[in-house]
Amino acid sequence: MTATVHDLRPAAPKPSLQPLLTLVAPGLNAVNRVILDRMQSEVALIPELAGHLIAGGGKRLRPMLTLACAAALDYAGTRHHKLAAAVEFIHTATLLHDDVVDGSDLRRGRATANTLWGNAPSVLVGDFLFSRAFELMVEDGSLKVLKVLSHASAVIAEGEVAQLTAQRVVETNEEQYLQIIQAKTAALFAAACQISAVVAERDEKAEAAMEAYGRNLGIAFQLVDDAIDYVSDAATMGKDSGDDFRDGKVTLPVILAYARGDAVARRFWERAMQGKANGEAELAEAGERLQATGAIADTMARARLYGSRAIDGLALLPQTAAKAALIETVEFAIQRAY
Description:
The chain is mostly helical. Helix content is 73%, strand content 1%.
């Protein structure tokens, strides 16, 4: 059988973070130096515990976005190095607190800090990192930067509390879910990007564009996370597969499957989210129900929608390597599910 032209066409390469990493490499080295310097303390447990998570294989995605957005706006200074470190400290602090709240055993494929050192040290070191972040903001001297990042910190905390109150409440609707992930995840993505426009001294239109890019990317990122919790494995995810299911987190796949299910299906989800039937057999059944109702596919479709909105936010930027890297970052965030 003769091969068609289509058969001979090379497959398109999968989206990668490599363009982003290449773009920000020099700046990220400077950011890492700030992080290592500012996580030090005379109290030995603080750098030991903080270093376990900070050096634990995270992509540094949020600080990289700060650097990349600054490059896309043609900013040539260095103020954003300390601010990118502040963003990473805020993120790391929330992870330490989240793992305590969730009782998580794995983070990025390694034992969580709360598993190794206990809950109290993890919470307190998280508080220390929050404080370091605010020191870095104050040193920058911009009230606007301080306003953006401090507001994001407050919104993240609100989102975490909202998620806690929605836990095991299977009647949570899609609008409530989106409000939660906009707060707990997207707010820091948005702030990380917006502050680049502030330090670059660009107008409010540019600030709004960078904020929209980060916010929509953050929503897409979380939607994908919530989908792959049911279809991936610990090696790929860096956490236990099915953690959300076992914790009774009512994420969008569950919301969609519950809404589309009959009485038997709804009873299954009610018992599972309440922790009455959430073992390995039930996790497998949950995956089957999510696939059968199209809940995973539709969650991913929504992720692609928000990804498109993120890319649309970059419309005012000229076509540069920095813009291309930001676009491919969105594509990578969505494609990592496959």
